[in-house]
Amino acid sequence: MTGRVRRWALAAGLAGTAALMVAAGTGLPRFGGDQHPYGARAVAASLRQQTANTISSVNFDQRALDTLGEESILFGSVLGTVVLLRQTRDEHRVRPRPERVPAALRRYGAGLLPVTLLIGLYIVAHGQLSPGGGFQGGVVIATALHLLYVGADYRALERIRPLGLFELVDGSGEAAYVLLGGAGLLAGSAYLANVLPHGTFNTMASGGTVPLLNAAVGLEVASAVVVLLAHFLDQAIEITDNRKAHR
Amino acid sequence: MTGPLAALPYATAAWLFLAGVYGMATSRNLVHAVGCLSVTQSSTYVLLLAVGYRRGATAPVFSDVPTSVPVVDPVVQALALTDIVVGATVTALLLALVVQVDKGHGTVDPDELSELKG
Amino acid sequence: MVRLLPLIVAVPLLGAALLVALGRHVRRAVAETAGCACAAGSAALAVGALVLTHGTAVTWAGDWRPHHGAGVGIVLVGDRVGLGLAALTSLLVVAVLAYSWRYFEEPPRGHAGAFPALVLLFQAGMCGFALTGDLFDAFVFFELMGAVGYALTGYRVEEPRPVQGALTFGFLNSLGGYASLLGIGLLYARTGELGMAQTGRRLDAAGGPDALVTGAFVLLVTGLLVKAAAVPFHFWLPDAHTVAPTPVSMLLSGVMVELGVYGVARVHTTVFAGPGGIPAAHFRRTLLVLGVASALTGAVMCWQQRHLKRLLAFSTVAHTGLFLTGLALMSDGATAGVCLYVLGHAGTKAALFAVTGILLDRYGSVDEHQLHGRGRGAWRLGLLFALGGLALAGLPPFGTALGKALVEEQADWLPLLFVPVSAVTGGAVLRVAAGVFLGAGPVPEERPGRQETAGDEEKPETGGLLRWLPAPMITVAVLLLAGALAVGTIPGLAEGTATAAAAFGDHAGYLAAVLDAHHSTPAAEGEWWTGPGVALGLLSAALAVALAVPAVRRLLPSGGWTGPLRRLHSGHVGDYVAWTVAGIGLLSALTWW
């Protein structure tokens, strides 16, 4: 197709879509209004469930099925990336060379790693209380491990990153979420029902299953991100392509 | 915010969507096109959060405020969180495909990929 | 039983999680058996729910039931059509996993279960999408099947083409998904609800539709129409099918595309079919234009192909167009016909892809020209392929023919579209069958400079070329075709479908069942074969043969007039994005005026 046809199709489409959006926008409620019926019900339900962080209550209790799907998208995408970035027949691995890192950077990495790891764990553990939770904390935990790549080199990262173990944890986190949902059925309620005691508001032991589901997601996200980055880093550092060399 | 400025958050969402689509359609580099797709997606974050905003309200977390204070809509925030996870993972998947396109075709310019046609 | 509905989604997810967790420690045969068992467990749940429950099975995840119609939870709605699609999906997944038994040369190192795990996740996404009664939850499952679908399409990364096709698939489906999410956001702004039934009830209470409702509708269905591969949102489908591993193509064409069609109909009937939604005339016009355009484009492009998988892909575009046309009629009879058509089409199309996959693994090509006469010894394969072609054309008593006949009865002009379109798609398959398995006619000439995708560069998906026909592959193909035959010959199925369709189209009934636990079963008379229906089926099958015979002898013109249409299918992701956004503009115009 010639670029001219594309430009016309694009121009017409953008104009039509813009017109649609402007027209639809005239029907939107005033920005910052007070009418949020679902939001108001969600806040009330969250307080009844003794969950101070209402967003976590929505994500892990009231709409926990969405989060099962969301976690599965992450899980499936990481598995997909593992498959897509696998070492193919034409490729071989080179052992990464040790890298020299400035001493200041090394100290910075070494100092920051445990702090970051701790913050990540804190964010996962306090998902029912304060902003954060399994997704956010999991990413922070995975980031902490990669400070080793910045502060030392790829070989150091590889030593603390046995991929087999991380894949085991990745799958276990996903399985734990599915099984915690099944516990609701076994307890005589519905799938993903919050059947544990709701505990005391604004304490660690509150929210019923919310902290457990957060922990499952935290495990899954932390290890999934490690596995994901491992495959991208492998492509950049270890895997060389014979096909490309031949061209 | 009152007057025409009150429409700004909504207008921003529409603009991000259109700008991302324009970028994808005219891109000469697949990595750039994946970035444009993320721009398109960010329109959904802006719309959701704008819809849930409430004037004078605080974050919907009650660990350090009394339960009587008005808060913004927590549902859209939960949706935006889900949306962000979806966006990040799909971006990773598409970038993995771009890595392999580069290996297989030796280029990431969509104009030079012409194996599938007709 | 009703409480167990979420398990239809959860069982495959658990299977995938275990396959990944233990992937390094199990042998391939164990992983594949476990994958099959999980898919079959989910299939048993879906079929069991279909048999054991009556009317609309409603369950709230987390037991968050609404009070006086207002709640905070997500509802799963196992009505007949939703459960039927979940059952169809799960059964097809079992067939696909059995077909791909020992399929790929070797799984990725240390990931023996990667392929079955991805297929299970795909199954979970599709079943969740079929069962959910919540708009945002539908978006989540839409994205799950999307993300896993891109990875499965690009599975054979050693070759350059698959990654390109998968990337196109990923761009367009993601773009469509985000458009849908904008639509969901607009509806949330108006109604403050995410459930389909709740949103529909609030819109009805708010009075007549305005620009916001129209805009939300257009954006919401854009994503679903991309999934359904309706013209002009269809460009990703031929490219993805051309390159995807054969078992994946079976799932994409057999159920995923149809789920897009289902999504359009589901969202329309639950949210937009009431007084506060989209006027019926506007909806009908929109769907008719897209349906007819898809049917014609698909048929013309299908006839022009020499790459077998691409040919089948375009025939899916054509048949999706027919499904959309049937749904545009908005009558229970037409919906029942479309349901049967979808069931028959799934079996037929999956069987045709299965045979194509065997050809690829045996002869190392899926190119009509290159395979000419090479299948002479494989009469069983040839018979299957030709039967599939006849079923596609609508030969009674295949389920495709019954479904087609039931839709055609709804209006006098419909046979003028359905007969030629199904005849051309079936005729293209018969043309291939005659050339490849009988060696009929002269060897096709190469047409240098022609804008086309040849199928001679595809690599077999098994370790090397197969010397014999593997029993699982043949068995699956035979069973799938037998399933398509059963759809047209078991009267109980047609009766059940009629009831299902009547409940599916009942806007008020759905709202009452979900929000007020008030169940009513609309009575529906099951239609069955009629004289004109059989005659039209025989006519389109005869027409398919009549097209195939001169085509094999090269007596038909080469179709140079299709050049401009073929050039639109450029494989360029920028072009396709432009057409997608042009499609949003087209939808706006059709829905507005």
UniProtKB/TrEMBL annotation, chain A:
The chain crosses the membrane at residues 72-88, 108-129, 135-154, 175-193, 213-233. It is a multi-pass membrane protein. It is found in: Cell membrane. Pfam families: MnhB. The keyword RNA-binding does not apply. Residues 1-23 form the signal peptide. Its main location: membrane. Keywords: Cell membrane, Membrane, Signal, Transmembrane, Transmembrane helix. GO terms for cellular component: plasma membrane. It comes from the Bacteria. Residues 111-226 form the Na+/H+ antiporter MnhB subunit-related protein domain. Belongs to the CPA3 antiporters (TC 2.A.63) subunit B family. This is Na+/H+ antiporter MnhB subunit-related protein domain-containing protein. It comes from Streptomyces mashuensis. The lineage of its organism: Bacteria, Bacillati, Actinomycetota, Actinomycetes, Kitasatosporales.
TrEMBL record, chain B:
Pfam families: Oxidored_q2. It is a multi-pass membrane protein. The chain crosses the membrane at residues 6-23, 30-54, 74-99. GO terms for cellular component: plasma membrane. It is found in: Cell membrane. It comes from the Bacteria. Keywords: Cell membrane, Membrane, Transmembrane, Transmembrane helix. InterPro entries: CPA3_antiporter_subunitC, NUOK/Mnh_C1-like. The keyword Membrane applies. Belongs to the CPA3 antiporters (TC 2.A.63) subunit C family. This is Dehydrogenase.
TrEMBL record, chain C:
The keyword Transmembrane helix applies. The chain crosses the membrane at residues 6-23, 35-61, 81-101, 113-132, 169-191, 211-236, 248-265, 311-329, 335-360, 381-401, 413-440, 468-490, 534-552, 573-592. Residues 443-462 are annotated as: Disordered. It is found in: Cell membrane; Membrane. Residues 133-407 form the NADH:quinone oxidoreductase/Mrp antiporter transmembrane domain. It comes from the Bacteria. GO terms for biological process: ATP synthesis coupled electron transport. One of its GO terms (cellular component) is plasma membrane. It is a multi-pass membrane protein. InterPro entries: CPA3_Na-H_Antiporter_D (IPR050586), NADH_UbQ_OxRdtase (IPR003918), ND/Mrp_TM (IPR001750). The keyword Acetylation does not apply. Keywords: Cell membrane, Membrane, Transmembrane, Transmembrane helix. One of its GO terms (molecular function) is NADH dehydrogenase (ubiquinone) activity. Belongs to the CPA3 antiporters (TC 2.A.63) subunit D family. This is NADH:quinone oxidoreductase/Mrp antiporter transmembrane domain-containing protein.
